[in-house]
Structure formats: structure tokens, C-alpha cells
Design a protein that fits this description.
Layout: E1 9-10, H1 13-28, E2 34-35, H2 37-45, E3 50-51, E4 54-57, H3 63-72, E5 76-81, E6 85-90, E7 93-98, E8 100-101, E9 106-107, E10 118-121, E11 124-128, H4 131-138, H5 149-159, H6 165-171, H7 176-189, H8 199-213, E12 222-223, H9 234-238, E13 243-244
Parallel strand pairs: 1-3, 2-11, 4-7, 12-13
Antiparallel strand pairs: 2-4, 5-6, 6-7, 8-9, 10-11
């Protein structure tokens, strides 16, 4: 259930026309897709802000059909990164076709569609990414010029009853420290609302942290920071002798 609703402000009338046409064409394809990004955040939190594009989420097997359909209609398409991202352009307007997150680390699966609610955007009924997956999609956006931590805090505040916390923990099993950091940020930002996060989850993550303290540090000097930002953590790999998280070590 969505108890807060708002729509972001398109950058121009031309952008709104483009988004409206794009969503109608996507609906004609009869394949599962989700609206994510600023539009989903606004629907869940009531926070409205300007946006320059749409984020369309689909399964990896479906993104070629999306791009080919729009190319057949005369749009320009591009595959920015074959691991996770394509784009559809019309002049200066565009939308992203996202089929995985964080350079392929988290592919979109059927599970993403199981609890996705329906809304209407620009007159077209569609499903939007569920709060659980929206948090998962934003957890690693931690660059020097962009940080989605406040978005996650607001999602917890407004949609905590709709978050599947066990599913979120499963998504972030290997990255539980990132989840703990977001939960601590929420507790600090909204101290009167700490009960929005289940006690069992905080207890579980704190136990993991305490257990980790009893172990020696890793033998391999790994920097996982490039999952946050390829640029900001580049010196660790290029100058300071750390191994990238997705790089083989010997």
C-alpha cells in the first residue's frame, strides 16, 4: 500500500511528452517492467523533486526487446554497459533501461516483481519497484557528488511496514556492513522513530560486527570502495597497493 504520493517535476514540457509516449510504448510490449528512481521514491515518500530522466527496470533477458522496439520506432538506443545499463534517446531526452545494479552485481529477477505495487503515471497504469528492492538499488550510491542515504532513510520512515526486511538482508548478505551503516544513519537522523527498524535485524547485524572483531584482518588488501565509486576509490587501487573487489588475487 502506498500512503504517500507525489510526482517529480519533468525538466520541460518536451520531457513530459517524451516520458508519456515512452511509458505507453513500454506498456504495449507486454513484458514485465518496473518504474524506479525518482518517480518511485516520490510515490513512497511524497518527496517531489526535479528529474531529468526515467529509470525503467526489467530482467536481463528482456532489455534487448525494449531497445529494439524503440529503435524500430526511430529512437536512438545505446548500450552503456552490457552488464547492467542501456539507454533510449529522443533528442536531449532519454530514459535508462536497467537490468542489473552495480555493474551486474545484482541482476533483476522475477522476485523483484512479486510485491511491486501498481500506480498510474502520466495516464499509464504500471508497476513500480517495491520499497525493499528500491533500498537495495540505492544502497551503493555513495559517490562524492551523489549520495542516496537520505532517500533510504525516508523510505524506512515512510514505508517500513512494507519493507521485507528478511529479503533485504538476503540481498545484502555479503554486504551487511553497508546495510548496518544505513540503519545507523536512520537511527541518528530520526531518533524518535528507531522502532521503524525491527529489533531482530539490528541485533543480528551487531552480533555479526562483534563476531568479526574476534577474527584477524583479511590477508589480502582488498578495497571494496569501488562498488560505491570507481573514481573516488581509484587511488587505493592505482597507488596504495589494494586489490579491487572484483579482481583475482594470488
Amino acid at each position: 500500500m502506498i500512503d504517500a504520493a507525489a510526482e517529480p517535476t519533468p525538466s520541460s514540457t518536451g520531457a513530459e511528452v517524451f516520458y508519456t509516449q515512452a511509458l505507453r510504448e513500454l506498456a504495449k510490449l507486454d513484458l514485465p517492467f518496473l518504474l524506479a528512481g525518482t518517480y518511485a521514491l516520490s510515490a513512497y515518500t511524497g518527496v517531489s523533486r526535479a528529474t531529468k530522466d526515467l529509470d525503467i527496470v526489467c530482467k536481463p533477458t528482456d532489455y534487448p526487446r525494449v531497445l529494439n522496439h524503440f529503435r524500430s520506432l526511430g529512437y536512438t538506443v545505446a548500450i552503456e554497459d552490457e552488464r547492467w545499463l542501456g539507454k533510449v534517446f529522443q533528442d536531449e531526452h532519454f530514459f535508462d533501461v536497467i537490468f542489473a545494479f552495480w555493474h551486474g552485481m545484482a541482476p533483476v529477477t522475477d522476485q523483484w516483481f512479486e510485491s511491486a505495487p501498481r500506480i498510474e503515471v502520466f495516464g499509464t497504469p504500471m508497476r513500480i519497484i517495491a520499497p525493499t528492492e528500491l533500498i537495495w538499488s540505492k544502497a551503493f550510491v555513495q559517490l562524492r557528488h551523489r549520495y542516496d542515504g537520505p532517500d533510504i532513510a525516508h523510505l524506512i520512515l515512510k514505508q517500513h511496514d512494507q519493507i521485507d526486511w528478511r529479503r533485504l538482508l538476503a540481498y545484502m548478505e555479503l554486504h551487511w556492513e553497508v546495510l548496518l551503516a544505513h540503519l545507523l544513519n536512520f537511527r541518528w537522523a530520526y531518533p524518535s522513530e528507531r522502532d521503524c527498524v525491527p529489533r531482530w535485524l539490528v541485533d543480528e547485524l551487531v552480533v555479526r560486527l562483534k563476531t568479526q572483531f574476534e577474527l584477524p584482518p583479511p590477508r589480502v588488501k582488498i578495497c571494496r570502495g569501488r562498488l560505491f565509486s570507481q573514481v573516488d576509490y581509484a587511488p587505493a587501487i592505482e597507488e596504495w597497493g589494494f586489490v579491487d573487489a572484483d579482481q583475482d588475487s594470488e
